[in-house]
Amino acid sequence: MTRPTHLRIHQFAGLQPGPRLLVTSAVHGNEVHGTKAMAEIARQLDAGQLTLRRGTLTFVPIVNPLAHQLDRREGDRNLNRNLRPPVIAQDFEDRIARVLCPLIAQHDGILDLHSFQSAGQAFAMIGPRNNTGELEPFAQEATESALAGRLGVSRIVEGWLSTYALGLQRRQQRQSDGSRRAQLISDPHYGVGTTEYMRSTGGWAITLECGQHLDPNGPEVARLAILRTLVFLGMLDDAAVEPHRPAQPPEVLQLYDVIDREDMGDSFEHAWASFDAIKRGQQIGTRASGEAVLAPSEGRIVFPNVKSQPGTEWFYLARPSDRVLG
């Protein structure tokens, strides 16, 4: 197998100045709803069926070509957890970061398109409230909130990086075997991916989880989200896509904890789907030791992953948020 040696980037430069939007997909190689959607929108732009009014639209349909070639989530490692320009490249994902990080910094915002393993409906993930703290200082809350409410999903999730920080504290207390993998998952930078890196440059960012990996509706969810983002930014005419008018406001949830798998013998109580309701004290799973894993409070389970490796995220916990969308 020959390893990929380049990233394929498509750019449409409007003849009038305007926003600079970056759209990415296959950051995890087997998540390709956005890849298919970008191909269709590029075709429509080339055919004159869509007209870019202003600004710059950049597509990176396959961000991790090695993982995509292997038809799996990662190449050498998870690109979307330790994203930063490397001093010395140690793996394939470091080499991607050398190109991807400067590209992100050249744009005003990013729409990052993903999918997930378990069953469930599409949802969006947004950044923190405006703040000047050390973890993730931010001043684009209004833009992210307003855009997320227009993408066509009924559920929006916040609290990603702060939840990771909590999980990282626990992970650093465990004994490390000194491997590259152990160093990465206990790195204080762990949890920073495409959207977090964009926010660190002053931009806004939305992650759209377009559904389960094989959901046949996923590419259309991604396509409509791209078009609605372009309309929201004034880069396409309003007539380019039917606007999203939800019957009721999207549900907003706050991630508050992440639970790692400790052993391959750890097992779920049953086949959970993202956003299944859980009650306080309900058994979620069982450790290899026989210890029951219980829900600490009422809420939802998010991203339950039967394929997670020991020392990495097994599932997340979420509860209702008081955030008001624009």
Automatic annotation (TrEMBL):
Protein name: Succinylglutamate desuccinylase/aspartoacylase family protein
Organism whose genome encodes this protein: Pelomonas cellulosilytica
Keywords: Hydrolase, Metal-binding, Zinc
Cofactor: Zn(2+)
Entries under Gene3D superfamilies matching the protein: Zn peptidases (3.40.630.10)
Transmembrane regions: none
Pfam families: AstE_AspA_cat
InterPro entries to which the protein is assigned, alphabetical: AstE_AspA_cat, N-alpha-Ac-DABA_deacetylase
Segments forming domain Succinylglutamate desuccinylase/Aspartoacylase catalytic: 17-116
